[in-house]
Amino acid sequence: MTQSPPVAPAPPAGVRIDLWLWAARFYKTRSLAKQAIEHGKVDVAGQRAKASRQVHVGDALVVLRGEERFEVEVRGLADKRGPASIAQTLFVESEASRARRESERATRAAERAGYRAPEGKPDKRARRLIRALGDIDAL
Question: Which CATH class is domain 15-111?
Answer without folding.
Answer: alpha beta
